[in-house]
Specification:
Blueprint lengths: L23 E3 L18 E3 H6 L3 H15 L19 E4 L16 E4 L9 H13 L11 H9 L2
Antiparallel strand pairs: 1-2, 3-4
Bound molecules: zinc ion.
């Protein structure tokens, strides 16, 4: 979650300081692609009023809240079996990929897979080829040196 310093941090929309004058909230870092339209709002803080007034506000709230629900331990259910995944070493997490509902990647946003079920997952090769073409395109730019997309590709490769 974004680190917010009351009376110091500023709203990502209006640049005013966040303090007792108006309600505010922070979003977690949930966008790994710095070319994504939501990237600059990820891991940032906002006045609630500014968020509600911004044209992109509703979309931003939708995906950030979906991410927050997605990472909750009780929601880590395998896409193949529906069973709860409790061990980190068994867990493949596909977080936020895109907000573009026309993209074939959109259906894979916020997916949990138990590593043992990867070979049984009927969409494994589809997602893998989508991620490989995304990697080769200009549409994904890694913000962090960890190369999130490459790690994701590696994690779902059989
Ligand atoms: Zn503001």
């Amino acid at each position: 979650m974004a680190l917010i310093l009351h009376g110091k941090s500023t709203c990502c929309f209006c640049n005013q300081v966040l303090n007792d004058d108006a309600d505010y909230r922070g979003f977690p870092h949930f966008v790994g692609n710095s070319n994504d339209e939501l990237f600059k709002y990820s891991d940032n803080a906002f006045h609630i009023d500014c968020l509600n007034a911004a044209p992109i506000g509703a979309k931003l709230i939708r995906y950030a809240d979906e991410f927050i629900r997605f990472i909750a331990p009780g929601n880590r259910k395998c896409v193949v079996t529906g069973e709860l995944i409790t061990k980190q070493e068994d867990h493949i997490m596909i977080g936020y990929l895109t907000s573009d509902e026309a993209s074939a990647l959109h259906q894979f946003n916020f997916t949990h897979i138990h590593r043992n079920n990867l070979a049984k997952w009927q969409d494994q090769s589809k997602l893998l080829s989508l991620l490989l073409s995304l990697r080769d395109s200009e549409n994904w730019q890694n913000h962090y040196p960890q190369q999130y997309l490459s790690m994701l590709i590696q994690s779902i490769t059989l």
